[in-house]
Specification:
Elements (H helix, E strand, L loop, with lengths): L15 E4 L4 H12 L3 E6 L5 H13 L3 E6 L9 H4 L4 E4 L12 H21 L6 E5 L35 H18 L5 E7 L1 E3 L10 H11 L10 E6 H13 L5 E5 L2 E4 H12 L12 H7 L7 H7 L9 H7 L6 H16 L1
Parallel strand pairs: 1-2, 1-4, 2-3, 4-5, 5-6, 6-9, 7-8
Antiparallel strand pairs: 8-10
Helix pairs in contact: 1-2, 1-7, 4-5, 6-12, 8-12
This protein binds NADP nicotinamide-adenine-dinucleotide phosphate.
């Protein structure tokens, strides 16, 4: 596999489409493309929503590339047809990201994720110019619960693994991402013109380009700063990755035909307590970062009111989590930033905006 040249100038390329451009992850994808001189067509639900879009317009002013904002909704059939015409590559990130169990998993998560992905790829099928599609999936399409690692063939999750344990009633977000990725593979295999590369990030953290604070990634670091885990952290582990590495992976995957297939994007697996320890060491003891694990019994009592069901706790609490990230390093040339920097820079940014 070739090692991609990340500094490649993209100014002479036909446009790149980025769906859900105003989101936490997508805003960095747009930044990465504009920084390399690309023409970007970012789709948003409402281009006139200044609160969600001003940072994108600012990037357009400051960076060498050119940004156009197009209106499109995942659930409106045909909504993406026009924006695809003449584009070379499509990076499909738009999808609702809600942790915890929603009231109506189909309308809140599964339909926008699955029907939305089909809608976007049907538009790709109608645009002869598009040769490469990159889908933002997740590691939650690879595994459902940390306990699933016991049944995985290796000692770490790889791109060969699929989540078989989530459902509409249990981990609906994970289920939505799994179904959406499967739908994308089905559509990719039914044609021969465009290639599909999938990015499967772990929990994405790091400084945000959007001023919004409602993204799950941002909520989590804010929770650390504002004392959500003051009495103790649940003994839960997640794969963590920097948002800037995730953005770079999307762009490299859009540029390289040999990047076809799935790519796990995880730097390191960390427990909540380990994250708290990193933050305390880097930011200082002024903030109520967790200093101990919350006892199991207490967690079983308070967990359900915090969105952690007993079933979830049984299959995740205290279980280790390991991912093989070799493919992202070898194919996409990702050199992961230290997680200490990811966490500290994210927290420092939030401290500045919260004060
Ligand atoms: P986010 O900031 O909440 O962004 C989600 C984006 O999806 C927003 O731009 C949102 O548009 C768009 N969207 C939602 N419903 C839509 C609809 N019906 N029509 C059009 N757009 C819609 O979350 P994020 O963390 O950046 O997530 C982006 C992608 O990364 C998602 O596919 C998510 O599953 C994936 N991912 C995230 C993480 C993570 O830890 N953050 C990890 C793995 C994978 P509006 O601005 O209009 O609301």
């Amino acid at each position: 596999m070739s090692n991609p040249n990340s500094s490649r100038d993209l100014s002479s390329r036909p446009p790149f489409v980025v769906t859900g451009a105003s989101g936490y992850v997508a805003s960095w994808v747009v930044w990465e493309l504009l920084n390399r001189g690309a023409t970007v067509r970012g789709t948003v639900r409402d281009p006139d929503n200044a609160e969600k879009c001003w940072h994108l317009r600012e990037m357009d002013q400051e960076l060498p590339g050119t940004l156009e904002l197009w209106k499109a909704d995942l659930l409106t059939p045909g909504s993406f047809d026009d924006v695809m015409q003449g584009a070379s590559a499509v990076i499909h990130t738009a999808s609702p990201f809600i942790m915890g169990e929603p009231k109506d998993p189909y309308s809140e998560l599964i339909n926008p994720a699955v029907k939305g992905t089909r809608n976007v790829l049907e538009a790709v099928n109608k645009a002869e110019s598009v040769g490469q599609v990159v889908l933002t999936s997740s590691v939650v399409s690879i595994y459902g619960d940390s306990k699933d690692l016991e049944d995985a063939p290796g000692d770490a999750f790889t791109e060969n693994d699929w989540n078989t344990t989530s459902s509409a009633d249990y981990q609906a977000y994970s289920f939505s991402k799994t179904l959406a990725e499967k739908a994308a593979w089905e559509m990719a295999k039914a044609q021969t013109r465009w290639r599909l590369a999938v990015i499967n990030p772990g929990f994405v953290l790091g400084p945000s380009k959007t001023p919004r604070t409602d993204s799950e990634s941002i909520k989590m670091i804010r929770g650390m700063l504002t004392g959500r885990f003051k009495i103790g952290a649940p003994d839960l582990t997640m794969g963590v990755v920097d948002v800037r590495d995730v953005a770079k992976a999307h762009v490299e995957a859009a540029l390289h035909a040999d990047a076809e297939g799935r790519h796990i994007l995880v730097n390191q697996s960390l427990s909540f307590l380990e994250m708290g320890t990193i933050l305390r060491n880097r930011i200082g003891g002024k903030y109520p970062f967790p200093t101990r694990k919350i006892p199991k019994l207490v967690l079983y009592l308070v967990g359900p009111s915090e969105g952690l069901s007993w079933s979830y706790l049984r299959k995740n609490l205290g279980y280790p989590l390991r991912f093989d990230n070799r493919r992202s390093r070898e194919r996409l040339g990702i050199e992961y930033r230290p997680v200490e920097d990811t966490l500290a820079e994210h927290a420092e940014q939030l401290i500045e905006t919260l004060s």
